[in-house]
Model the fold of this input.
Amino acid sequence: AGQGPLHVAVLCHTGAGGSGVVATELGLMVAAAGHDVHFVGQSMPFRLAGQHSMRGPYFHQVGGFAYALFDQPYPELAAANALSDVILEQGIDLTHAHYAIPHASAALHAQSITGRSRVITTLHGTDVTLVGTEPAFKRTTRHAIEHSDHVTAVSHFLADQTREVFGIEREIEVIYNFVDSERFRRVSDPGARLRVAQPEEALLIHISNFRPVKRVQDVLEVFARVASEMPARLLMVGDGPERPNAVELAIKLGVIGRTHFLGSFPDVQGILGISDLFLLPSSNESFGLAALEAMSCEVPVVAARAGGIPEVVSDGVNGFLAEVGDVDAMADAALSILRSPERYRQMAQAARATAVGEFAPELIVPQYLAAYRRMLE
Ligand code: GMT
Done:
């Protein structure tokens, strides 16, 4: 492929979730750099809608087929089939699979069908730490990781965990996630914040897909402690299985009047850009992309010392870390900076400096492009 344009297919989860966001943001940047990018999936990725233009990225929908004898729709086979079509029609050089299963498995299947297209797999976490360790998926996950032409992980924690869980020796390159600090920045319009909170209120925020691993109950416990000490409001952005429990707990803790469940939406920069503090008490998190997006908006993070979070959030510098479930420590940390304007200002600036200085697209995207080129040598 020399130094000319690359022809890249991308497989990713399309719903609200960090891996699909990373895949989309990367695909957009790779396309903007003059390469040919084709997303293949059951539906258009969450953040891609409205973003693609004539220069791409393009989106190809995986077809379905209902047949009386099939008791299931077999989406991985349909994905491998659709990807094979795209590889042959578009002259794809490589497929970037975000997640070992099902995406790298489907990409390897298409590679074997077409006899072309290298496979680069990016591990995001859940495939390794939750799904992949299930006996029902362990061999397929290990196979996908071992047979990909190149494998990356979004944190050192995840790379180490993958080697340990699967007993894999192969090279796993760590390429951190990134944030576009032009888009994710402080919102300067004071009216935007006034529509959500009173000037004297601290505005706390949590964004996730409300799965048990996110410990949204801890978000409410921390917020209730903060709100008992100072005027405060909480924005809960996202949707998922724990939402009803979270609403119930907010009622029980007496903070439902100051908690807003806003549901799920892709353009979170506007809401992050008016917030004061991001809460991420997850029991496991391979990276914590939402926290990085908050930091880019000058929002310090109070998080659990779990997984790869300490590779993004430095305790006492751009946020605070506490042990998983230690809601008292998290509330104390939150109160300590919300009550000290000077300390808060320093942390907010440090959060932005971390995002811009260590996780800029200009630093990260070339690492993926270099990996793409190396695979094709
Ligand atoms: O955790 C989620 O809510 C979604 C999940 C996904 O797979 O989309 O996110 C994972 O990938 C993100 C992007 O690399 C990381 O920032 C998240 O930390 C990671 N989630 C977990 O490890 C639980």
User: Anything to note?
Assistant: The domain at 7-178+360-376 is CATH 3.40.50.2000 (Rossmann fold). The radius of gyration is 21 Å. Residues 13, 17-20, 22, 124-126, 154, 177, 208-209, 213, 284-289 surround GMT (CB under 6 Å).
